[in-house]
Amino acid sequence: MNNGLTELELENLRHIIGGHGMIANKLEAYAQNCTDPQLVSILQKDAQDAKAAQQKLMTFLG
User: CA 9 to CA 7: how far, in whole Å?
Assistant: First the structure.
């Protein structure tokens, strides 16, 4: 089920997935506190990209 990943690789993958989630949350918070519309747009897109990467990485867990 885990694509032949070792326990260490699974642990590292979980850590990376968590990091992407944290980055997405921080970028969303920055966007909410920003007043420059162009910067808000950039931050929101980067947050979406981080979430997408997180979801894609999660497919390797099982």
Answer: 5
